[in-house]
Design brief:
Blueprint (H helix, E strand, L loop, with lengths): L1 H20 E19 L10 E8 L6 E11 L2 E10 L13 E8 L3 E9 L1 H5 L25 E9 L6 E8 L5 E3 L14 E11 L2 E11 L11 E11 L4 E15 L19 E22 L2 E14 L10 E11 L4 E11 L8 E12 L1
Parallel strand pairs: 9-14
Antiparallel strand pairs: 1-2, 1-3, 1-18, 3-4, 4-5, 5-6, 6-7, 7-8, 8-10, 10-11, 11-12, 12-13, 13-14, 14-15, 15-16, 16-17, 17-18
């Protein structure tokens, strides 16, 4: 009798332990609303007439998605984890497969974590919260002027440190970045040097009301038939300070020998919505450079209401001044959210872009309203 009770108790304990040490979660975001946008191509095009469109848009505040994440406790402060995350277009029901994130990793309480697969970059991680628009809302997003601040890379090994007195750091290397490539052969042949590779590194300090972030990104072009190009480099600094009644946001950065478009906001300025799942692109252009900056504010202005706004510029330099009729890109945007609950909110925003993609005379006006639900 005692033996049978002991076996039953052991079996029950093992079942409870198994449940406690392994967990799988289904989660997601549903975001849909109405979007109006007018676009003028600019002085570099023979047809410079204004075009507009109006309709439903998926993923304006946040890209609509669903995902599965799991974690298993391996003991001694070590755990294994995975994430499969797919973008969803609420307007027509299509999805992308698990292109938002597809990773398997290990996390140590004392040593940090390693992820393998496709996911957001170290720069994206450390810049979280620096943009008052949360790296969303289409052309209002910070990556409209500082493209590397929101990016996904495929074929990446990424390490993230534990929090050390407010400091966290990340570094990642992609063996084949999966970006659209301009200005140099794309490769695709066998051989590591025939792939477009990338490295990304970021450092973040967050304590009390202060957040400071710094990052560096570099893309190495494919070397096809000896036709190599200069690496594209990008560095960024940013931060926030929370005065409680208002939070101040600011960032400054530079790109060298080309341009990184993290989510293709610029080239897709004439598309409704703001889903941040696109691959984006990298322009290899030796001698070309940009200087970019952003200042913004966010604040709780009433019960359940948050308001935010920003102004940002991307200033062409070097070869960017000679290859086309270029001018400083300026983006001014305002937005607000109303929380019905912790999971559901409404939003509205307006964004004006002048000299879009640094092309003289190119303009975009965007107005969007919608509803977002988290599950």
């Amino acid at each position: 009798m005692k033996l049978s009770k002991l076996l039953a108790a052991s079996t029950l304990a093992l079942g409870v332990a198994s449940t406690a040490h392994s967990e799988v979660t289904l989660y997601g975001v549903v975001d849909v609303g109405i979007n109006y946008q007018s676009v003028k191509p600019g002085d570099n095009f023979s047809d410079n007439s204004t075009r507009s469109q109006f309709g439903l848009a998926s993923g304006q505040q946040n890209g609509s998605r669903w995902g599965i994440r799991g974690v298993e406790d391996l003991g001694n402060g070590l755990s294994a984890n995975f994430v499969y995350e797919s973008a969803v277009n609420v307007v027509d029901g299509t999805s992308t497969g698990f292109t938002r994130q597809s990773t398997l990793g290990l996390t140590s309480d004392s040593l940090g974590s390693v992820d393998l697969g496709r996911r957001t970059t170290p720069t994206t991680v450390v810049f979280s919260g620096v943009d008052p628009f949360g790296q969303s809302f289409g052309t209002a997003s910070l990556d409209a002027s500082m493209g590397s601040t929101f990016m996904r890379l495929s074929n990446m090994v990424m390490y993230t440190s534990p929090n050390l007195s407010g400091f966290t750091g990340s570094v990642g290397y992609s063996f084949d970045a999966g970006q659209d490539v301009y200005g140099t052969p794309e490769g695709g042949e066998f051989g590591t040097s025939n792939k477009t590779r990338a490295v990304s590194a970021g450092l973040r300090y967050a304590t009390g009301p202060v957040v400071v972030a710094g990052s560096y990104d570099q893309f190495m072009p494919a070397n096809v038939a000896g036709k190599a190009s200069a690496n594209v480099k990008s560095w960024n600094l940013g931060g926030t300070y929370d005065f409680k009644v208002v939070k101040v946001h600011a960032a400054y950065g530079q790109s060298i020998d080309g341009l990184i478009e993290g989510t293709d906001v610029l080239s897709n300025a004439n598309l409704s919505g703001g889903d941040t799942n696109t691959n984006g692109g990298v322009l290899f252009a030796p001698g070309a450079r940009t200087n970019s900056w952003m200042v913004g504010l966010s604040a709780p202005v009433a019960d359940r209401v948050n308001a935010f706004g920003s102004v940002q510029q991307m200033i062409p330099g070097g070869e960017f001044k000679t290859v086309a009729n270029t001018a400083t890109q300026t983006v001014a945007s305002v937005g607000a959210t109303y929380a019905f609950s912790k999971r559901t909110n409404a939003y509205a925003y307006y964004s004006y872009m002048n000299n879009a993609a640094m092309l003289s005379g190119a303009k975009a006006n965007t107005v969007g309203v919608g509803l977002r639900h988290l599950f």
